[in-house]
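Researcher: Good morning. I'm working through a list of sequences from a screen, and I'd like to move beyond sequence-only analysis. For each chain I'm collecting a predicted structure so we can compare shapes side by side. This is the next one on the list. No need for commentary yet; just the structure.
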Amino acid sequence: MAHNPGRLSWQEIATTQAGVITIRDAVAAGITRTEIRRRLNDGRWRQPFRGVLITDLTPSAGTQHLWAAVQAIGPDAVLAGGCAAALAGLVGYDAQPVTVLVPADRRVSAPPGVLLRHSARLEITEIDPLRLPRRTTPARSVIDMAEWAASRALAQDLLGDAVRQRIVTIRGLREALSRRGPISRRTLITETLDRLGEDAPHLTEIMFRRIERRRELPPAGYGVDGPADEPTSRLTVRYEPWRVRVEIGSVVGESVTQGGHGQDILVRLPARLLRTAPDDAAAIVAGALRERGWVPPADRPHRALAS
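Model: Good morning. Structure tokens for this chain:
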């Protein structure tokens, strides 16, 4: 990646790249090849790949190796897949190879320890504009991870983890998938995103309102914390006269009821419970309302009809 060689010093160039610089840029910035060899021989610098120098040998957070890989491959190279997703914050997939993506027509050899992949489609909007070294956006990175995963099960797991960890949104993944071009796991990825989307509040609300009607629960107020089409958002149902609040979300592990004796009652329900056991979900909410004095219509005494 060029940083105006000849106008910036080699120190300035290397500093912006975690201590990494190409020999070409270093020479263009004014340092001689003789001086480069001297620093390498003295052990002050290191050459991890052909044409690439590491000028700062102090321990780093690991970005030096990523910078060196991108610099060694040259123009149009971007980090991709698991290593790019990890830089975006995805955890639980640490054993990802350093993967570099280049255009399909680019012919270049991969440096040792670097996995080189080609893509016929990589739009400028799929490259993260805010972070260096150059990398694909989180959504494109996760879609590529799913396509390249060792198994279908692993592909499904990482899609779910990326959404739950809020690295990406389902909407962003769908958009990235639409731009991805022909891939072998398009159907698998689409079906996985559809299943993840079942926990989104706009669908959860429809299911809960159906439960309310069937069990004749009292009218409630509804609110959503976050985008209504994302499963990481939370649906809140409030029964104000009875001081009962129900929170429904995909991150809730088990049903929990808290409060009582003068406090508001909070009921937390996993979104999946509304699909798998709607009667159980209704019974939990009805129990909290009963505790606050609500009487189901079926239990109310019938008024005598006027003669």
